Amino acid sequence: MGRYNYAFQNFDATKHVRASIREKKISHKHARETAKAIKGLTLEKARDYMLSVIAKERAIPFRRFKNQVGHRSDPGMMSGRYPEKTAGEFIKLLDNLESNAEYKGMDMDRLKIINATTHKGVVLKRFIPRAQGRATDKNDVLTHVELVAQEF
Q: Among 4, 29, 125, 148, which is most buried by a count of CB atoms within 10 Å?
């Protein structure tokens, strides 16, 4: 596995903590909207939000990728979905971020997510054999997610 850099530029090791997952097989669109939804939340609020998404109690608002996405009854939300697989990966990432902050000796109650970034990773190119000697492409795009939290 290659070396990766973080997208967050002004990282200060004394007041910031960061964590990332690389090349996960989750939807890039779902990951982008989920990252946008948890930016600005504390770690505990973000974890509760992801658990309620998995339980289908609260939805993730879809702002950019909203074609053919139904409306949800959450207050102040138009289009939205319940990306359970992505929310599960985000919970693991939040746990990793929390353990990194604990290792640095930071206060968990004062940590706030200030940056949440997603990138497309490598494309796994395959094909499905079809009738008459034809084939259909089956491309899976892997996703990178980075979170940076700051102690306030």
A: 148
